[in-house]
C-alpha cells in the first residue's frame, strides 16, 4: 500500500520471539526479560496479521527475532505463510547457530532466502562479541545452506574491531566469503537503538573508500538482489556481491518500504520511533476466524493496520538522538 509520503510499503519483518541463544554485546548482552507465552503472538495470530497485511499489499515477509530458530515450529510457520495469497516471498534472518539442523525443514517449507548474521571471522572476537565460542557452528551452517542451494546472504554490522591476527581488518575477511561461496556479504551501519547506542557507527562512506582501495576493479552491481535498501558492488573473481546498508550515512528513508511486527503484536512503522499500534486487542477481541475478506473482524484488522501504515513517519532522526523515541532493544524489534 502507499503511505502518506507516497512510498509503496510491501515488506514486513516479523519477530517471532524475543529470546536468543547468543548475547551480542550491541543487542542483548544480558538476555531478555522472560515474557509470559500469552504475551507473544501465536502462529495462528501471526498468520491472521499476515493475511491482512497481504490484502494491504505486503508481498515479502522476513522472519526474525530474537533468534527465530529457537521458537519451535519456525520452519513450518514459514511454510504456512508462503501459502497466503499475495505473499511472494518469505525469508528468514538467523544467527546461524541452529541453521544446519533446520536446513531440511527450511527446504521443505520453501523459504526464499536465508540471511545469516555474522560480524567477524575471528574466533576470539566472535566469542567476545556474542558470548559464545560458536563460530565454527555458524560457518558450517552457511556452507551447508549454500551447498543445499539456498539463497544465502551474510549480514555483518560494521564494527570497529581490532585487526585480525593476519593483519587484515574484519571486513576484508568477511568480504572473502563472497569470493569463496556464491553468497552476498552485506555490511550494516550500527544504529543507535538499545545497546547499539554504546557503539560507534562505522561511516560507510569511509568503508566504501577502503573497499575501493582493496578491490580497485570493484563495480556497482545494479541487479536486483532482494527487497531492501542495500547498494551492491561486484568484484571480479567473486561468486557473490558485496553490499552496503547505510541507514546513517546514506539515509534511504525516501525509499523505505517496510514495517515491523514485534513478537508481542506491536505493528511498528519506523525503527527510530515508538509509533505504531498494538494489534493484540484487535486480534483477541474481534472474531477474525474467517479468511474471507468480507468477514468483519478481519476487516477491522485491515482497517487498523492500514491507518497505522499510512501514518508511517517520513524519516528517521538518528542524527538527532534527542528526538529518538524508540526505547526497546533490537532483539525485541527484530533488526
Ligand atoms: N537473531 C537473528 C540474527 O541475529 O540475525 C535475528 C534478530 S537480530 C536483532 C537481526 C539483525 O539486527 C542482526 O543482523 C543484528 O546484527 C542486527 N542488529 C542488532 N542490533 C543492531 C543495531 N543497533 N544496529 C544495526 N543492526 C543491529
Ligand atoms: Fe541474538 Fe541476533 Fe541479537 Fe545477536 S543480534 S543477540 S543473535 S537477536
UniProtKB/TrEMBL annotation:
Catalytic activity from the UniProt record: GTP + AH2 + S-adenosyl-L-methionine = (8S)-3',8-cyclo-7,8-dihydroguanosine 5'-triphosphate + 5'-deoxyadenosine + L-methionine + A + H(+)
A biological process from GO: Mo-molybdopterin cofactor biosynthetic process
Keywords: 4Fe-4S, GTP-binding, Iron, Iron-sulfur, Lyase, Metal-binding, Molybdenum cofactor biosynthesis, Nucleotide-binding, S-adenosyl-L-methionine
Pfam families named among the record's database cross-references: Mob_synth_C, Radical_SAM
Gene3D superfamilies registered for this protein in UniProt: Aldolase class I (3.20.20.70)
EC numbers: 4.1.99.22
InterPro entries: Aldolase_TIM, Elp3/MiaA/NifB-like_rSAM, MoaA, MoaA-like, MoaA_NifB_PqqE_Fe-S-bd_CS, MoaA_twitch, MoCo_biosynth_MoaA/MoaC, rSAM
The protein's required cofactors: [4Fe-4S] cluster
GO MF terms held by the record: 4 iron, 4 sulfur cluster binding; cyclic pyranopterin monophosphate synthase activity; GTP 3',8'-cyclase activity; GTP binding; metal ion binding
Residues of the Radical SAM core domain: 4-230
NCBIfam families: moaA
Protein name: GTP 3',8-cyclase
Organism: [Clostridium] asparagiforme DSM 15981
Gene this protein is translated from: moaA
Amino acid at each position: 500500500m502507499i503511505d502518506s509520503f507516497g512510498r509503496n510499503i510491501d515488506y514486513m519483518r516479523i519477530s517471532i520471539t524475543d529470546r536468543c541463544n547468543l548475547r551480542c554485546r550491541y543487542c542483548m548482552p544480558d538476555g531478555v526479560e522472560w515474557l509470559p507465552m500469552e504475551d507473544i503472538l501465536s502462529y495462528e495470530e501471526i498468520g491472521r496479521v499476515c493475511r491482512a497485511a497481504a490484502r494491504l499489499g505486503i508481498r515479502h515477509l522476513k522472519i526474525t527475532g530474537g533468534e527465530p530458530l529457537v521458537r519451535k515450529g519456525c520452519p513450518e510457520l514459514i511454510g504456512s505463510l508462503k501459502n497466503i495469497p499475495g505473499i511472494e516471498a518469505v525469508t528468514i534472518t538467523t544467527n546461524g547457530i541452529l541453521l544446519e539442523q533446520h536446513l531440511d525443514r527450511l527446504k521443505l517449507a520453501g523459504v526464499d532466502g536465508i540471511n545469516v548474521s555474522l560480524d567477524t571471522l575471528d574466533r576470539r572476537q566472535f566469542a567476545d562479541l556474542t558470548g559464545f565460542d560458536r563460530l565454527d557452528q555458524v560457518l558450517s551452517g552457511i556452507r551447508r545452506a549454500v551447498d543445499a542451494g539456498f539463497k544465502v546472504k551474510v549480514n555483518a554490522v560494521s564494527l570497529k574491531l581490532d585487526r585480525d591476527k593476519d593483519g587484515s581488518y574484519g571486513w576484508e575477511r568477511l568480504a572473502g566469503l563472497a569470493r569463496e561461496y556464491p553468497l552476498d556479504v552485506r555490511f550494516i551501519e550500527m544504529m543507535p537503538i538499545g545497546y547499539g547506542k554504546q557503539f560507534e557507527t562505522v561511516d560507510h562512506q569511509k568503508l566504501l573508500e577502503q573497499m575501493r582501495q582493496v578491490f580497485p576493479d570493484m563495480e556497482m552491481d545494479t541487479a536486483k538482489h532482494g527487497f531492501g535498501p542495500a547498494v551492491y558492488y561486484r568484484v571480479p573473481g567473486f561468486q557473490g556481491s558485496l553490499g552496503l546498508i547505510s541507514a546513517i550515512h546514506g539515509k534511504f528513508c525516501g525509499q523505505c518500504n517496510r514495517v515491523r511486527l514485534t513478537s508481542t503484536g506491536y505493528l511498528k512503522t519506523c525503527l527510530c520511533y515508538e509509533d505504531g499500534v498494538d494489534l493484540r486487542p484487535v486480534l483477541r477481541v474481534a472474531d477474525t476466524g474467517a479468511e474471507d475478506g468480507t468477514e468483519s473482524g478481519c476487516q477491522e484488522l485491515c482497517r487498523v493496520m492500514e491507518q497505522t501504515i499510512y501514518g508511517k513517519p517520513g524519516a528517521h532522526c538518528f542524527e538527532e538522538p534527542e528526538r529518538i523515541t524508540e526505547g526497546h532493544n533490537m532483539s525485541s524489534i527484530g533488526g
